[in-house]
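Onboarding guide, step 5: your first structure request.
Type a short instruction followed by the sequence, for example:

Predict the 3D structure of this protein.
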Amino acid sequence: KKMYDDTLIVFTSDNGGPIYRRGSVGASNFPLKGGKASNWEGGIRVNAFVAGGFVPKAVRGRKLGGLMTVWDWYTTFAGIAGV
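The system replies with structure tokens like these:
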């Protein structure tokens, strides 16, 4: 069936871990400052990855350190879908 050849897996998040106030324990975004609901790197910087047979062999295994946001995926997915 070769379903993997036509598969694109995208894993991403929308923001960093929560940091609670008033002495409550929350997530650790160390060494980044801030957390969920803040504009510091700890609130907006997260990991993401793409996998699957649909990923071109020329770019498999590449690590990119650029900035992007979730809505940047729209153009990518629309192009893949041919719309």
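Each response can be followed by summary notes, for example: The chain has a mean pLDDT of 84.
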